[in-house]
Amino acid sequence: MIISRGERIYRNACALIATMVALVCLYPLIYVVFVSLTTSEEWVSRGGIIWFFPSKPTLVAYQKILGSSVVILRSVFVSFIRTVLGTFLGLAVNALTAFVLSRKDLPGKKPIMYIILFTILFSGGLIPGYLTIEALGLKNNIMALIIPTLFNGWNILIFKQFFEGIPKELEDSARIDGVSEVGLFFRIIIPSSKAVFAAIGLFTMVGHWNSWFDASIYIDASHQHLWPLQLFVKINLENTSGLNQGGLDFLINNNTAVGDITMQMALTVVSLLPMLIIYPFFQKYFTKGVYLGAVKG
Amino acid sequence: MKKEKLKFLHYFKDKPLQFKGTLILSVLVLMLISLLIMPIMKISDPAVDLSVNIYGFDVIASFGNEIQKYVYSIGDIFLTLPKVPSILLLISFILIIVSIIATIISTFTKFIRYQNLIIGITLGITSLYTIIIYLFLITTKNLSALDFYGNTKAFFEVYSLGINILINIVLGIFLTLIAFFLKPNGIKKVRKNFIMYLLLIIPLTLMFIFKIYPIFLQIILSLKEYVISDGIWGSKWVGFANFRFVFQEPDMLKLIGNTVVISVSRILISIIPPIILAIILYEMGRDRFRKGIQTVLYIPHFFSWIVVYGIAYAFINPEGLINNIMLLTGNEPIKILTSESKFIPLLLTTDLWKELGWGTILYVAALSNVDPNLYEAAAIDGAGFWKKLTKITLPSIAPTIVFVSVMAIGNILSGAGFEQIMLFGSENMEKAQVIDTWVYWEGLNELRYGLGAAVSFFQSAIGLVLVLLCNKFSKRYVGIGLF
What is the CATH code of the structural domain delimited by B244-478? Predict the structure, then answer.
């Protein structure tokens, strides 16, 4: 295909615009990292305007966050536990349900599907959900952050759609080889739907790592040791005066080498880092699985 | 291997009716056991954090006697159970036992011909009875009971009913339906797929507890005026008063207005810029380079709103970058975080930053399916840039555009972005008052549960209708639907 001169200019312009948008997207992130490395001396001397990498970068903020108190590490651990358990159990529950519902010839399959669809479209809302958790005695329990999220109608629909697309011949030949019905799930279904597992796994993982609101209502300030990282970050971003429950004393009035803003930005970086690290590993599955996930929004 | 594990299934190979009967029988026995060994009622005094569980066998033992119970930190206490509820619950035990006997008789004797009717009717009566006494016990103010201190109060104020009764109601209805409608042919399929049904037990239990029960609770709450001392069940029924409030209160109109304004602006922000960006990405060619750029563009989508808030905070806090620049250039600093007029623009800017790249993914996918020959043919016909854009590019993503916009409209009442507003706004900001935040601030925090439930019921109901309509519309006109 021959590209005319006008066309080439047009393409280059598009590339330029796209690059600029990507830079605008990236810059705030880099800026936050810069601030998190800035000494208070430099911050003051520049009038609080840091465009580039600080001239005397310091890791004091990170040392303080991760070293001087167990609080942050503990909340990282809570986030980690809920993410791992929530993702694995969630995948297991939803994939198995979808597997069962993707069998043909299963009496009662249709009404179950309609009920699941209904739970997607109509929700009980915040208050009844809270009362249910309270009635189950799950308040101030880390399970309150995991168990209610396990059943997810959307994920079941996505899994089911995908499983139904797997050629029946594969299953039939496995049956001839003596694989049991449940064995099909492990031998045939899982190996041929890695993409959808990866995509839903990623979204569940991101959802768990990023969530904070459920913890803020189900876990009281008296049980701070069960707060996930995001909630700690939120509280310390909003309230530097430390009057609020959960404000970390060592983050404020520190009178040391770094200012409040540096501490806060370091905290932000710590809380976003895991997502940044896992993201590239899942990218290769994006084409297939994510399309489904993106429809879900 | 599989056959050995489920040997008992083999026994029923040519006996579908016996299989059905046995299945129902085993569930019925489980129901009876759950009533006997799980707490069926709880007597409590929340003020001093005192509660005693009453089990099924306590109810049976209680006739004519006081029952002895051990309470932590107090020691043994003696309770007189209220008569009427005990008798009502005892009858429900008896009904279950009758159902068990009826099931046994109709399954293992010559009455098997009438199995459907015998089991169906006895179970139907049992379930109906349980529903009626459940509703009666949790709502009536006329039944009296003695609390820990010997004071006479309404039954529901002293006792709460166990979750096992509710589970039994659900199971009872379910078994009744099975008894009536499961045909021998279906039973054979059930037997064949028995293990599949076992796999469904956990997910469906989770669904009932965390998805269906809250919906039921929401409907109940929305018809009541919640008073904390009376609990959910004891609070007064007020009919549609909560809903009337929703429609009459001028504040509500403002709330709905705010929600719609924010939702609609977000829809615009989440559709138009991504379309433009997707077209730019498509037109730029250079596949490798484009992939790199896409990778960068998708990143912010994976951050939490807290992180986005933290990043925004670096720029907009009173001593942040923007204000420092303002000071440097001799301007007045601006209070962005607390300013009412900058609230919505702030929401939209951060939303744009977070979701712009991710928003392109559907359009990029749609564009990658376009046949490149189309463009070549168009070029040969002398079509210019504009012609190609309007005749090939846009039409090929039009279905996606319609689908995305229509579904966003379906979500209009819940699409204002609850988490984001919770972070960027505050309770005393007028523009931050949308339906979701109102339910949290005024409903949950102020204990106005009835009103909160009515508002979110209204929101969910409208949302349901809108989504169904929009889905239908999208399916009919562009062939893409959610389900």
Answer: 1.10.3720.10
